[in-house]
Structure formats: structure tokens, C-alpha cells
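Thread title: Can someone regenerate the structure for this chain?

I was given the following input by a collaborator and told the matching C-alpha cells would be attached. They weren't. Posting the sequence so someone can regenerate them.
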Amino acid sequence: MSDKNIIEKASDTMGNVIDKAGNIMDNVTKFQKQSKLKVGYVERDEFKNSNLHKGFFCYNCIYWIDMTGGKCMIVEDKGPDLFGNVSDVIAPHGCCSVYEPDFDEIKEQKEVVVDEKK
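Best answer:
Regenerated them for you:
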């Protein structure tokens, strides 16, 4: 292989690396944190003492981070929710429209409900 071919091949490879790095940076900026309002986040005190392993709660979402209060990888922790409630955390009993279940966290339990009145 001639020196010219090696240089051309290296140049093509560097161009591909630079393009791929640019694409990665574009994807990272697409995932900047969103406001609670924008993602439809709700936090209700009625759910504070719920079994967080059941249902659609932040606690068992793939984006949930449980450190010094609630955090989310994609939702800002400050600001009002849809009901106008303001807190500085993403509550474990909250939920929003970008919820994705963390099946490792959710304990699947099958229950049978029998209505004895019938």
C-alpha cells in the first residue's frame, strides 16, 4: 500500500470519527432535562404512603435516581408540577409522561380480586 493510500484511508477514517462524535454530541443535547410542566409531572400527597413497587411511580422508573431526595435523569427537580405544587425533588410517588418501567425494581405480583357480592 502506498503512502498516498494510507494517508487517504486515515483521512477517511478521521472524517468518520469526527462525524460520529458530532452525532453523539447532537444526541446528548437532545436529552437535556425538561421542566416538570413540560413532561406532565404530577405529585400527589395521597400517594405518599403507597406501595411504590406497584403502579406507575417515579420510584420504579428507569430514570429515577434515589440520592439525597428524589432526582430524575431527564426531568428538572425544581419548579411546579401540573397542579402548581412546587418542590425541589422528584418524589418517589410522583409520575410523568416519560415514565419507563424499571422491571428490576417492580415486584410483579398477580392478584385475583373476587367480588363476593355477585
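Strands lie at 64-66, 70-72.
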